[in-house]
Write a structure and sequence with these properties.
By secondary structure, the protein is mostly helical. The protein has a single domain, classed as Up-down Bundle (Growth Hormone, Chain: A). It contains 14 helices and no strands. The longest helix has 35 residues. It is found in: Membrane. Its main location: membrane.
């Protein structure tokens, strides 16, 4: 009698989902408190962009080594280190007293949060066959959106009752609760007694060679491979757009449509809820096409082209006359970004063996953070220039045009470096 396959891999996805939710909850708090902190500390748009850049620079620096370290020490310990560092950093924001100290706290937060996606993508590659990886990635990646949905409700409520310091303290403490469950329930499939032989055989059904006992790939060697550059440019050109959505959307709605950020914001909740649908739906679509017999590379690239096109209507935001029209256009773009993100992360595990996945994701994440350093400089300059001229709305319109073309350009560059996304032999 054949034993029914266990489904423990989906519990692993649940752990990754909640970690990513906490990751983005801690990241989003600053953007929601921006008007309050600008008033208290007298920040300009450029001051705020410098604080954002401190996070991005530390995030990029940390990713240089975090991916490689995780390939050496493993997913379980790697996540523990990452969450401990970023949760402590989130708590310490409550004690910042100016631009410099906020910049330092954001830098420490970036050092810790850099571990989230390299670990999560590697854990997904360890626990899922290729045909399920995009869906699994979409599910845990949607945690970014849930964190962004919870924050506009939770943070204004805490702000109104207790003040901005408590907003950082309460949200920062959540990561330590998650750590208990990660330590208790995560192991590699071969070491996890809750997963039976049938499930382990299913996970290994791609017949990928077992590289767990091999020496990790030398980090610099990966730069000689075209597929690495496809992933690097795909992340560099699109990650900064998501950072803009996280850090500047609240103030955009406040400045363009007089949204009161001291109260829970249903408009922001709708935008970030749409991204959850995009993340899971984007992961499902490419998996659906693969199950229909499409080659993996064609399913991924067709899906990503569709999502790139879906971002472009955000350029019409300049013609909106009320907040709900803007909410619809921005929700579509943000959802398309997360659908794109679910698939671009999966391309790393499609093209590289498991022993190199975290390193490649770390390199790509670093590239995305470099873009995330440069783009806030441009955003701060544009918004301060147009604010001085008395027309900050025109500044946001110019930024939306840049956002609209970024994904199509990224898709073209990725196609140039990896037309068929061939599996790398290392």
């Amino acid at each position: 009698m054949q034993t029914e396959m266990t489904r423990y891999r989906w519990r692993v996805v649940a752990l990754l989902f909640f970690a990513t939710t906490i990751n983005y909850l801690d990241r989003q708090v600053l953007g929601l408190l921006k008007p309050t902190l600008e008033t208290e500390f007298g920040w300009t748009e450029s001051d705020f962009s410098h604080i954002v850049m401190a996070f991005q620079a530390a995030y990029a620096f940390s990713l240089i080594g975090f991916g490689a370290i995780i390939d050496r020490i493993g997913t379980k310990l790697g996540y523990i280190i990452s969450v401990v560092v970023w949760s402590i950093a989130a708590l310490l924001h409550a004690f910042a007293n100016g631009t410099m100290s906020f910049g330092l706290m954001r830098a420490l937060l970036g050092l810790g949060e850099a571990g989230n996606f390299p670990v999560a993508i590697k854990a997904t590659a360890e626990w899922f066959p290729k045909k399920e990886r995009a869906l699994a990635t979409g599910i845990f990646n949607s945690g970014a959106n849930i964190g962004a949905v919870v924050a506009p409700i939770m943070v204004p409520w805490i702000l109104g009752l207790y003040g901005w310091e408590q907003a950082f303290l309460i949200t920062g403490a959540v990561g330590f609760i998650w750590l208990f469950f990660w330590i208790k329930y995560y192991e590699l499939p071969a070491r996890q007694p809750r997963a039976n032989e049938a499930e382990i055989n299913y996970i290994l059904s791609d017949n990928e060679p077992d590289t767990s006992k091999e020496k990790p790939v030398k980090w610099l060697e990966l730069f000689k491979i075209r597929q690495t550059w496809a992933f690097v440019f795909g992340k560099m050109l699109t990650d900064p757009i998501w950072w803009f959505f996280l850090y500047w959307l609240p103030s955009y709605f406040a400045e363009a449509f007089k949204l009161n950020l001291s109260k829970p914001s249903i408009e922001l909740v709708i935008v970030y809820t749409a991204t959850t649908i995009g993340s899971i739906g984007g992961g499902y679509l490419s998996g659906f096409l693969i199950n229909k017999g499409w080659p993996v590379f064609r399913a991924r690239k067709t899906s990503m082209l569709l999502f790139a096109v879906c971002v472009m209507p955000i350029m019409l935001a300049q013609y909106t006359t009320n907040i709900w029209q803007a909410v619809v256009l921005i929700s579509l773009a943000a959802a398309a970004h997360q659908a794109w993100s679910a698939n671009i992360f999966t391309t790393a595990s499609d093209m590289f063996p498991k022993k190199a996945v975290s390193s490649v994701v770390g390199i790509g994440g670093m590239a995305g953070s470099v873009g995330g350093i440069l783009f806030p400089m441009l955003v701060g300059y544009i918004l301060d220039t147009y604010k001085f001229a008395g027309n900050i709305g025109a500044g946001y319109n110019l930024i939306f045009i840049i956002c609209g073309f970024a994904y199509l350009l990224a898709w073209i560059v990725m196609h140039f470096f990896a037309p068929k996304m061939e599996q790398v032999k290392i």
